[in-house]
Amino acid sequence: MTLWRLEWMRLARTKRWIALVGVYVFFGLLGPLTARYLREIVDFAGGDLEGATIQFPPPVPADGMAQFVSNAVQIGTLVAVVVAAGALAFDAIPEMGVFLRTRVSDVRTILVPRVVVTVIAVLGSFVLGGLAAWYETWALIGGLEAGDVVAGLLFGCLFLVFVIGLVAAVAARASSVLGTVMISIVVLLIMPIFGISEALGRWLPSHLGGALATIPAGTESFSDYLPATAVTVVTTVGLFFVALRFAASREL
To answer: What pLDDT shows up at residue 251?
Structure first.
């Protein structure tokens, strides 16, 4: 059995792909539904506060994607980090690390299948969720330009590849899956703080996560994300290089 087949079987048999697909598709279906019926939801929950009535503008198609992105960027990314950490922190269980390392001549033989399978699983789930949100937005609120949605999906996918690269680099040094998850999440939480400055935020990888909401809404264009794209590509390549070097130098 090759390590490629082993990794696909591990993803399938541990049901981790269900968590990824379930989260993204769930929010892909929930987001437009929430945007369309937000007024009714608030009224049902008690929108009349001491005589004050909450007024909501009529929903527009971009609201459906915005609702999806608000959840996908947060909860979806968290699930992606957990799944990636479980795959890439193969040294967290010393016996597993020794077993794998003593059977290959190059750590890339272990790392590359795990990275590639994780990337395919995470990006495939995100795209499925985005397509579900796009369809339901069309059905409930109205249509969106296909080019805008595709551009937003591509930028979102690039951000998720960066996230997996970050997890890979951390996993190569961390001593546990939990440690990998916590450090990765802290780094991802810190980035939006620096992003408060618009001049700096447009260059950060985290800026790409909101493209699926802002491009269809017309508040930002494709070119607005090119600075963050350049930084993200360079940083992601660097993270995978660091992950490989750290993993190769790690003692059994």
So the answer is: 56
Number of domains into which the chain is organized: 1
Find how far residue 2's CA is from the centre of its chain. 28
Q: Which residues of 147-185 are buried (b: 16+ CB within 10 A; e: fewer)?
A: ebbebbbbbbbbbbbbbbbbbbbbbbbbeebebbbebbb
C-alpha to C-alpha distance for 41 and 43, rounded to whole angstroms: 5
Is-contact 96 3, C-beta < 8 A? no
pLDDT one-digit tens code per residue, 1-46: 587 888 888 888 888 889 999 999 999 999 888 888 777 666 666 5
Q: Angle of helix 16-36 relative to helix 77-88, nearest 10 degrees?
A: 170
Calpha distance 24→203 (Å, rounded) = 26
- Determine the structural domain holding residue 229 and report its residue range: 3-249
pTM (two decimals): 0.90
